[in-house]
Design a protein that fits this description.
The protein is mostly beta strands. The chain is 4% helix and 24% strand.
Length: 278
């Protein structure tokens, strides 16, 4: 798990910094076929063919890996067969074969290697890759893949290098500090997985050239001030001016410092302290 750089034989290689994929098991080059589904590309269009997400399209074909976010295989130990690359997410995934020969993919945390045993459910050991209810996890532990509601599956802290910290437990709720700095109340019977998600160096990756963005399905984006007034509020004017106005989105919403969260959102009562503002 590290970053690979290149000698600048070309302008793009000068800035390219990619993963060395050292943690990927070379013996398992092909993913588990039974845990894959076809994935169609929408190109940012909805069911009516209208563009709802700009700057999307093209890219290499992918197949979706079915990830076990629920970790509901309780009481059955599983052995890590391989650590694999997943083109649909920043984290690595681990292929687990349980004692009953069922195979599942899970998010691979730091320290999980081939040959280790993982388990889920009450009474599991406190080690990376094991999933337990929050009430059984010690305070100060690093956790990921956290449920918001029981049996719904992990919904937060699922990207590379991410982890939350269990701050306190009181009655039926637990205080969890999220990667954003927000402290949130979550029910104690919700499951979370021990450890920090692997591929920590993902934040240091530099794609190096526009072509690699296109391989990932990201189309070019033009600057707002380079557009005409009919296309963007910040367009037009002489030179590289934005008209002296505050930066906004295409629809006129303020781009810096404007709080987009609804003031009367139902889940606000579960936020103990909000994320710090820089």
């Amino acid at each position: 798990m590290g970053i690979k750089t290149f000698r600048p034989f070309s302008p793009s290689l000068r800035w390219t910094a990619i993963s060395d994929f050292a943690e990927i098991d070379p013996k398992h080059k092909r993913p588990e076929k039974s845990l894959m589904e076809s994935l169609t590309s929408s190109g940012g269009r909805n069911s009516r063919g209208r563009m709802t997400s700009r700057r999307r399209g093209g890219g290499h074909k992918r197949q979706y890996r079915l990830i076990d976010f629920k970790r509901d295989k309780t009481g059955v130990p599983g052995k890590v067969i391989s650590i694999e690359y997943d083109p649909n997410r920043t984290a690595r995934i681990a292929l687990i074969e349980y004692a009953d020969k069922e195979k599942r993919y899970i998010l691979a945390p730091v320290g999980l290697t081939v040959g280790m045993t993982v388990s889920s459910g009450p009474g599991s050991e406190i080690q990376p890759g094991n999933a337990l209810p929050l009430r059984e996890i010690p305070l100060g532990a690093q956790i990921h893949n956290i449920e918001f509601a029981r049996n719904r599956g992990g919904q937060i802290v699922r990207s590379a290098g991410g982890y939350a910290i269990l701050m306190a437990k009181e009655g039926e709720t637990a205080n969890v500090k999220l990667p954003s700095g927000e402290v949130r109340l979550i029910r104690s019977d919700c499951y979370a997985t021990i450890g920090q998600i692997g591929n920590i160096d993902h934040e240091n990756i530099s794609l190096g050239k526009a072509g690699r963005h296109r391989w990932m399905g990201r189309r070019p984006a033009s600057r707002a001030v380079a557009k005409n007034p009919v296309d963007h509020p910040m367009g037009g004017g002489e030179g590289k001016s934005s008209g002296g106005r505050h930066p906004t989105s295409r629809n006129g919403q303020l781009a810096k410092g404007f709080k987009t969260r609804r003031k009367k959102k139902a889940s606000s009562k579960y936020i103990v302290s909000g994320r710090p503002r820089s």
